[in-house]
Amino acid sequence: MADSNPKISLMRFFCFFVAVILLWEQKKILLVVADNDDGSDQSKNGCKADLSKFLPVPYSNISNMACTPIWNTFDLRYFQSEDNVMTIVLSATYTTGWVGMGFSEHGMMVGSSAMIGWIGEESQASIKQFFLQDSTLSGVLPDIGDLDLTDIPPVVVLHRSTIYLAFQLNFASRQAHQSILLAFGTKPPAKNQLTEHDDRTTILFDFSAGTVSDDFKSIDTWKQNHRVFSIIGWGMLLPVGAIISRYFRHRDPQWFYLHASIQFVGFILGLATVVTGESICNILQADVGPHRGIGYFAIVLCILQVMAIFARPKLESKIRRYWNWYHIWIGRTALFLGSLNVVLGLQIGVTGNSWKIGYGILLAVILVSVILLEAFLLLRRHEKPLPPAFQVKPIP
């Protein structure tokens, strides 16, 4: 017996060493559960699912965890301990691709950190922290971020048709209201490079009450309206009104009424763009940098344009020429800033490619139209008949 003790001690030390290494390399500990159940027990889906059957402790300790449906098929389970450690289990319907949950100070995607989970080839499960440095796919950086993970390994489980992302976070203080980003993509990441999301949303979650803020429920609608107003107002109507003013003056007085009507509608939509943008900033408490300032400056220029109409001098007035210069260049400056701000907004809002492509096509059509109309205008001026050098009186 005495001779076997050193062997037993050595074996125990080896097992302890292996356990420490596994816990240390927590990001490599991934779990996938293949369930051959036919899924007939649909009553246990969502918040009613028994996590103890397929999740390890502490994630399976559902007696201490609250559960709330938060978006589409996404359910959030969480428990916040007295030492500000939060245990989170995010579940969602899954077929392929990835599912993610991000944490943001102001509800914006750029600058946030997220936990992303997916099932790759040969049923290999992966979960990683990503940092969203900018709005491009190359700016989504793996294995870094501001989330303070505990020593408990994060876990990914595929149970029937639902994926579960489980992880623990350390917080400096007890969490109450928190901006949360939710997203999913149907294409799995390749070599830890995240693919384009198919859908996403931002919510303001109250961990103390387990509720989603009503303001954030409508944030996607606010963003949609903001984009539509800006593209139609700043991107289409105001440029078209300016084009009519410059290239169709020979259609007098129709050009004036058409120009004034289109510019007025464009101004209203531009004003609506600012109002919806301000509402979004107030809800998200977001810092959008120069986008907000440029928007306000552009709408101030538009207001000056409207006010200038009431101070328009008569055609024979000596100052009419200076008023024309003012009206033209203030308008052009507003149009340039408006178009620039639409581009900035599409980048900041991390919109899908369809919005960017659509606005790019619209901008290209306007630019090509301006070039062609300017060429026709120059040709018309060049082809104007010159007055005769001398006039011959007609013979009576």
From TrEMBL:
<protein>
    <submittedName>
        <fullName>Cytochrome b561</fullName>
    </submittedName>
</protein>
<feature type="transmembrane region" description="Helical">
    <location>
        <begin position="255"/>
        <end position="274"/>
    </location>
</feature>
<feature type="transmembrane region" description="Helical">
    <location>
        <begin position="357"/>
        <end position="379"/>
    </location>
</feature>
<feature type="domain" description="DOMON">
    <location>
        <begin position="72"/>
        <end position="185"/>
    </location>
</feature>
<keyword id="KW-0732">Signal</keyword>
<keyword id="KW-0813">Transport</keyword>
<feature type="signal peptide">
    <location>
        <begin position="1"/>
        <end position="34"/>
    </location>
</feature>
<dbReference type="Pfam" id="PF03188">
    <property type="entry name" value="Cytochrom_B561"/>
</dbReference>
<dbReference type="GO" id="GO:0016020">
    <property type="term" value="C:membrane"/>
</dbReference>
<dbReference type="InterPro" id="IPR045266">
    <property type="entry name" value="DOH_DOMON"/>
</dbReference>
<feature type="transmembrane region" description="Helical">
    <location>
        <begin position="228"/>
        <end position="248"/>
    </location>
</feature>
<keyword id="KW-0249">Electron transport</keyword>
<dbReference type="InterPro" id="IPR005018">
    <property type="entry name" value="DOMON_domain"/>
</dbReference>
<feature type="domain" description="Cytochrome b561">
    <location>
        <begin position="188"/>
        <end position="382"/>
    </location>
</feature>
<feature type="transmembrane region" description="Helical">
    <location>
        <begin position="294"/>
        <end position="311"/>
    </location>
</feature>
<keyword id="KW-1133">Transmembrane helix</keyword>
<keyword id="KW-0472">Membrane</keyword>
<feature type="transmembrane region" description="Helical">
    <location>
        <begin position="323"/>
        <end position="345"/>
    </location>
</feature>
<dbReference type="InterPro" id="IPR006593">
    <property type="entry name" value="Cyt_b561/ferric_Rdtase_TM"/>
</dbReference>
<keyword id="KW-0812">Transmembrane</keyword>
